[in-house]
Design goal:
The chain is mainly alpha-helical and about 625 residues long. It has helices at about 40-70, 75-100, 110-120, 130-145, 160-165, 175-190, 195-210, 215-220, 225-260, 290, 305-310, 315-325, 335-340, 375-395, 410-420, 425-430, 445-455, 460-475, 480-495, 520-540, 555-565, 575-585, 590-605; strands at about 150-155, 155-160, 270, 355-360, 365-370, 495. It has a two-stranded antiparallel ribbon with strand order 1-2. Strands 3-6 form a two-stranded parallel sheet.
């Protein structure tokens, strides 16, 4: 999905769109410039817009790629200039589409594309002279600030990718974790607050010109359903999965209390954010050794260790990821992928290390941008990012506005559901693990707990990011309350609190990449649910009879054929159609996820007897 390449174009960041209904005003049929207010005029407008946006997106992608992989004052300026052009195009086409959308008798495909043009903008600039340039400059500067950000460890500067790794290093003391957490949030987040508030004000004006109350209302209109129904759906999915999260939170808190004592981590109440092995406490897998169940927790292997023992480097890890998709029948990646991707952090310049997948030419110039380290996390991330690339390639024959996922959650879920198949059996199949070392059924609790430490732990975080932004955009969270609201939501949903008192000028949201990058985040929450729905469908198609969490469909061409049938639809059909093509159902459901973790939930409930749940 091109949004992951940080290119602010139509249909790139928000997936499919639907009329805003109660949260927006219906456009009026006014003069539409050179295009008559007729079905034919609307069709001509859409065709011209798609042709123009296709060509622009290629140039913009190249400018953004160079900026992300070679951060300088000059590449910042070039990216900002390109972004400004794109923002102006977005707004011009959106305003025109809003007028033409009211024309009676439109061809359904034309009507759908007009809706996409109107609602597919992440940060709309108003038509006020200079607003697009200012908005693009701020957005580029925020991303650049993040890319160059540093925290400290033992008083010494440490870069973003390195500090992320160190937060998962269990050899550090609670004081060292607190130093890294506080320094990163203070150094990276706090300086952004003023610019972020200004950016919100500009973008909200742009959203209003398009008939929306604010940017959040616009974002919630991108899911082929009424925005209120979308909000209700996400809340339903959270409520379905919340008992599983609460059980995990209670268990992990008790183990941290055993490790660090009451003075560091009390046995009741919220968990200290810096003790969970991740800068944002969004995934907890790095502290698995601290919570591993007695007798079942030691899986007998670590993927990072297996890779090192086999002498595998970053490029080898990507080759392994490609191999999984090839085993399902997908074509190998093009040579240009290997020539043009960024696999490791260059020694001579600043880059954005945050992993992302790119589609430069809307055809076959697909790439990933990572700073790969030989560890389990990056091994999984590679499978995820390649999922974006294979999705991009599958739908490349569609017209421009359909070059996207069925919704943005689909794009995120594809790679993640492939990664769920990184089971012991898969590791044997690819020669990383000896069959004699495959953990037996008695290790299932450990296997599931290790998965839940990432998959389940993430759910409330995935939900609260955009809940915070929706409040920021609608004004219920004013700038002076930005951090207070952020900390409050993290405690309310995650049961997490900062390790140190937060100063009045703190802006902790800015320390999370997707906030300065203005990437809508609900896609990740949806992806956590959808990946299990996809996974169960694939395992059913493969005829898997064992426990769901041990399934591997590596090498199954039938699964690949059905998966491709969904991927190749791109955004050409509403997401329920795409979901049905692969899973046979039209509703997003948490039931497959709950089935996957059902044995773990039973075990957690037994471990948590007599302990206080919640915070």
């Amino acid at each position: 999905m091109k949004s992951l390449a940080s290119v602010a174009l139509f249909a790139l960041a928000a997936g499919l769109s639907a009329p805003a209904l109660a949260e927006s005003e219906a456009p009026t049929a006014e003069d539409s410039g050179d295009y008559p207010l007729t079905p034919a005029g609307a069709a001509d407008f859409v065709a011209a817009a798609e042709a123009d946006l296709f060509d622009y997106s290629v140039d913009a992608s190249r400018a953004q790629w160079v900026n992300a992989t070679y951060i300088t004052v000059d590449t910042d300026a070039l990216a900002a200039e390109s972004g400004a052009i794109g923002t102006e195009k977005q707004v011009d086409y959106a305003l025109e589409a809003a007028k033409l959308a009211a024309v009676p008798g439109l061809d359904p495909e034309v009507a759908r594309k007009l809706t996409m043009l109107r609602t597919g903008i992440v940060l709309p600039a108003p038509t006020t002279p200079g607003a697009a340039v200012e908005l693009s400059t701020i957005a580029t500067d925020l991303q650049s600030q993040y890319g160059k950000g540093k925290g400290t460890l033992d008083g010494q500067p440490i870069s973003g990718s390195d500090i992320e790794a160190e937060m998962g290093n269990l050899d550090h003391t609670p004081a060292e974790f607190a130093e890294m957490w506080a320094s990163w949030h203070d150094n990276v987040g706090a300086p952004m607050k003023g610019d972020y508030a200004r950016m919100v004000a500009i973008a909200n004006e742009g959203a209003k010109e398009l008939g929306f109350a604010d940017v959040g209302a616009l974002w919630r209109s991108n899911y082929d359903m009424d925005p209120a129904e979308f909000t209700a759906m996400t809340e339903r999915l959270w409520q379905e999965t919340k008992p599983l999260y609460l059980a995990l939170h209670t268990y992990v808190r008790s183990k941290l209390n055993e490790k660090y004592g009451d003075a560091v981590q009390p046995a009741t109440g919220p968990i200290r954010a810096d003790l969970l092995g991740n800068m944002w406490a969004q995934e907890w897998g790095n502290i698995y050794p601290l919570v591993a169940p007695e007798g079942a927790g030691d899986l007998g292997y670590d993927i990072g260790d297996l890779l090192e023992k086999k002498g595998k480097g970053p490029l080898d890890m990507v080759k392994i990821g490609e191999g999984f998709y090839s085993s399902l029948g997908f074509e190998k990646l093009p040579e240009t992928f290997w020539e043009r991707s960024q696999f490791t952090k260059p020694r001579d310049r600043e880059v954005v290390c945050h992993a992302s997948a790119w589609d430069i030419d809307n055809k076959d110039d697909i790439r990933i941008k990572m700073c790969i380290k030989v560890n389990a996390d990056d091994f999984v991330t590679i499978h995820h990012e390649l999922g974006h690339n294979y999705y991009q390639r599958a739908y490349s024959d569609h017209s421009y506005l359909y070059l996207n996922g069925a919704n943005d959650g689909f794009h995120e879920a594809i790679g993640d559901f492939i990664a769920l198949s990184i089971t012991p059996e898969y590791l044997v199949q690819i020669g990383l693990l000896d069959r004699a070392d495959v953990p037996g059924p008695e290790k299932d609790t450990g296997l599931l707990l290790r998965q839940a430490m990432d998959k389940v732990a993430f759910l409330p975080f995935g939900l609260l990011i955009d809940k915070w932004r929706w409040g920021v955009f609608d004004g219920s969270i004013p700038p002076e309350k930005y951090n207070e609201a952020w900390v409050g939501l993290k405690e309310e949903y995650q049961g997490i609190v900062p390790p140190v008192d937060r100063p009045a000028d703190a802006f902790d949201p800015g320390a999370k990449y997707h906030i300065p990058a203005n990437t809508p985040y609900m896609r990740y929450f949806l992806a956590r649910i959808l990946q299990f729905q996809f996974f169960k469908a694939a395992c059913d198609q493969a005829g898997w009879k064992g426990p769901l969490h041990r399934c591997s469909f590596y090498g199954n061409k039938q699964v690949g054929e059905k998966l491709n049938a969904m991927l190749k639809l791109g955004a050409s059909k509403p997401w329920p159609d795409a979901l049905e093509a692969f899973t046979g159902t039209r509703e997003i459901s948490a039931k497959p996820m709950l089935e996957y973790f059902a044995p773990l939930k039973k075990w957690l409930d037994e471990q948590n007897k007599g302990k206080t749940s919640g915070w």
